[in-house]
Amino acid sequence: MKAQALRDSSMSSYMISKKTMEVNPEHAIVVELKKRSDADKSDRTVKDLIWLLYETAMLTSGFNLDEPTGFGNRIHRMIKFALTINEDEKVEEEEVPTLNETEGDASNTRMEDID
């Protein structure tokens, strides 16, 4: 049916919605991002924030992200930044205690008591 209506695959590009992002240059977020970007062009945090602004606008508009893992990584970096956690910092892992085998019949478990 689609092939009949569009005749060939090159015509399907007309059916894809185009992405247009309108930016309010007077919005407080945009003004602050511009100031910080002008102050330090290589600041990774500012770049991440700009990408997050773009990607969240895409998501809220109903579009899919081309690289969702990149979006997730940026979110994690922003969370670490907000919590003042260095990426180099190693987290000390607690030792997990070993589980002791309970004596008796293995079929007599707490889960079966509930049933």
Give a verbal description of the structure.
The structure is a single chain. This protein is mainly alpha-helical. Helix content is about 45%, strand content about 0%. It has five helices and no strands. The chain has helices at about 1-5, 30-40, 45-60, 70-80, 110-115. Helix 3 crosses helix 4. It starts with a helix and ends with a helix. The mean pLDDT is about 80.
How would the global form be characterised? Answer: flat
Largest sheet: none
Distance between the ends: 53 Å
Uncertain ranges:
none
Report the average pLDDT across residues.
Answer: 79
Helix-strand sequence: HHHHH
- Portion in helices: 40-55%
Residue fraction in strands: under 5%
- Radius of gyration computed on alpha carbons: 26 Å
Topology, number of strands = 0
Oligomeric state of the chains present here? single chain
What is the structural class?
mainly alpha
Number of helices: 5
Quick structural overview:
By secondary structure, this protein is mostly helical. Helices cover 47% and strands 0% of the residues.
Which helices and strands, and how do they pair?
Blueprint lengths: L1 H5 L21 H12 L4 H17 L7 H15 L27 H5 L1
